[in-house]
Amino acid sequence: MTTERDPEDLTARARIRDAALFHFGEHGFERATIRGIAETAGVSPGLVRHHFGSKQGLREACDEYLVALVHRFNDRVRADTSHTDMSYIQQSRAALRPYQRYMARALSEGAAASLFDEVVNLTEEWLADLKRPDPPVVPLRVRATIATAMAMAVPILYEHVSRGLGVDMFSPEGDLLLSRALLDIYSHPLISPEEAAVLLDALDRTAHRATPAGREAAPGPDEELHDE
């Protein structure tokens, strides 16, 4: 399967960026070195600093590249209203596959904030377009944030997900099975709206009792025994 390449990918700057994505993913930000990145890219450490200034600047460039990549595929998905050919879904996963280790390590290190936040923004746009008959109980931004965290956790947990699926999730068979599973989960609620309403009510009452006002209003042990 081939994917479109950005013309910039042929430049020394792009080679340095891809080398950094590899080193940050394999070794973590702190252990990765400018010298090691330069050696993998086939350039001098001075050229790395010329293009990116510092290791932090290099990591920011890595995040910017991935944000642009995510945007590119998001635009393709949103532009397709017929859904007759969904090969671009596999293409997008194939394009992001070399960077999964980087994203997993960066997110676990508390970095890649711009990447996570931009995916939240895109998810928020998707959720805003959905026709939901019942009003959500949390703000749209909160829903988008949790949905993004859940989605990005799947590739981060690559080894565990692949073991559970019984097939490499990045293989064509695994990609198809994962896509079918996600569609099944998204299209079928795990609990009914009625069950959710009961649980939300209980959650709100529990949260109220945890506040100072709720503790003052709650009956004491003697009162509870007397009521019985």
TrEMBL record:
<feature type="domain" description="HTH tetR-type">
    <location>
        <begin position="10"/>
        <end position="70"/>
    </location>
</feature>
<dbReference type="Pfam" id="PF00440">
    <property type="entry name" value="TetR_N"/>
</dbReference>
<dbReference type="InterPro" id="IPR009057">
    <property type="entry name" value="Homeodomain-like_sf"/>
</dbReference>
<keyword id="KW-0804">Transcription</keyword>
<protein>
    <recommendedName>
        <fullName>HTH tetR-type domain-containing protein</fullName>
    </recommendedName>
</protein>
<dbReference type="InterPro" id="IPR001647">
    <property type="entry name" value="HTH_TetR"/>
</dbReference>
<dbReference type="InterPro" id="IPR050109">
    <property type="entry name" value="HTH-type_TetR-like_transc_reg"/>
</dbReference>
<keyword id="KW-0238">DNA-binding</keyword>
<dbReference type="InterPro" id="IPR023772">
    <property type="entry name" value="DNA-bd_HTH_TetR-type_CS"/>
</dbReference>
<keyword id="KW-0805">Transcription regulation</keyword>
<feature type="DNA-binding region" description="H-T-H motif">
    <location>
        <begin position="33"/>
        <end position="52"/>
    </location>
</feature>
